[in-house]
Amino acid sequence: MAGVWRVVVLNDPVNLMSYVVLVFKKVLGFDETTARRKMLEVHEQGRSVVWSGLREKAEAYAFTLQQWHLTTILEADETD
Fold first, then answer.
1. Which of 12, 13, 64, 80 is deepest in the core (most CB within 10 A)?
2. Are 51 and 6 spatial neighbours (Cβ–Cβ below 8 Å)?
3. Can you give the CATH number for the domain in which 63 is found?
């Protein structure tokens, strides 16, 4: 069975909160409320899982977020 992978955005001292919200809306299709909530998770907790699913799509999202200069990693979801 193909495992589930998580796209995790990590906090960084560089990007403005408004920029992170913009990127989440543009890349992940989040609405304003979701984008803000996820950005605050990154800001306050140091990380946020912004998407999970099949590895190929997870890698594509992670790559795109990295192109927008967000610090992004992939994690295998061990719970499945």
1. 64
2. yes
3. 3.30.1390.10
| Residue 72 domain boundaries | 4-77
Answer for the pair 11, 73: CB distance below 8 angstroms, yes or no: no
Q: Total domain count for the chain?
A: 1
Q: What's residue 2's pLDDT?
A: 65
Model pTM above 0.85: yes
pLDDT digits (tens, 9 = 90+) for 28-63: 999 999 999 999 999 999 999 999 999 999 999 999
Residue 47 and residue 41 in contact, taking contact as beta carbons nearer than 8 Å: yes
